[in-house]
Write a structure and sequence with these properties.
Blueprint (H helix, E strand, L loop, with lengths): L1 E6 L6 H6 L2 E4 L2 E4 L2 E4 L6 H11 L4 E3 L3 H11 L5 E6 L7 H11 L5 E6 L4 H16 L4 H14 L1 E5 L4 H6 L16 E7 L2 E8 L2 H16 L4 E7 L3 H14 L2 E8 L2 H7 L4 E7 L2
Parallel strand pairs: 1-2, 1-6, 6-7, 11-12
Antiparallel strand pairs: 3-4, 3-5, 8-9, 8-13, 9-10, 11-13
Amino acid sequence: MLRIAIDTAGDIPTDWVEEYDIQMIPINIHFGEQTFLQGVDLDNEGFYNLVDETGVIPKTSQPTPKQFVDFYKEIADPGDTILSVHVTGKLSGTFASAELAARELEGQYNVIPFDSAAGSAAQGFMVREARQLERAGASIQAIIDRLKFIRSKVQVILTLDTLEYARMSGRVGTMQAALASLLNVKPIVLLQDGVLDMFDRVRTRSKSLEQVLDMIKERLAGQPANVAVVQARDPKAGQALLAKVRETLNCESLIMTDLSIGIAANLGPGTIGIVAYPVA
């Protein structure tokens, strides 16, 4: 039996969770002395409300190896294979925790941790394709090969609406030194080689969204693609971008998802972007 798991730094439409039988391990959200599990006792709106009420931007942490061991035992039976797809190991210790748990459970469960080298909807697309391939009779090696293809091709381009979260998190490379002079601009951020880097600075929100779409269009070069618009507490802007994406790109599938708390805690509300990769 193949179990497929994802951490909650990945974005996945709610209906996919049941349709593709995806198990989710929550990341930890720390508000002062309180610790919440994303999606269990703290949803996205509850997170933003807490930030609004307290003025504190929380810290996030990966599930511990023990949390992973308990999670794997809960979702699988001894002898099962568990494909566990995780946020980039260069920005989070989640993948490392999964590896430690896999070693501890060796001989009981066949746990295969996979580093997406990305996050957000990239992970969501990966686990959907993994399940589709498994149902079509593909071997686990063929599934992993497909995930490696997606990992090598996926584009993640975002624009931030506020710099406060990025300043406090320190998760965006090359950004710290520039922050003082960037108070009135909208940065364009790329996920490259598993790391978030600032690519450009744009004066207005509308221009930043145009640039995100233009950059994705250039990279896809007309190829049929799986595409997601991701947004953090700005569904109106998300829907507007979604409409433009539908008109502009050659979409094999097109979805919109809420940006996970784990990423929004580092980039902030108003972050919006596109995740896309060619189908073949």
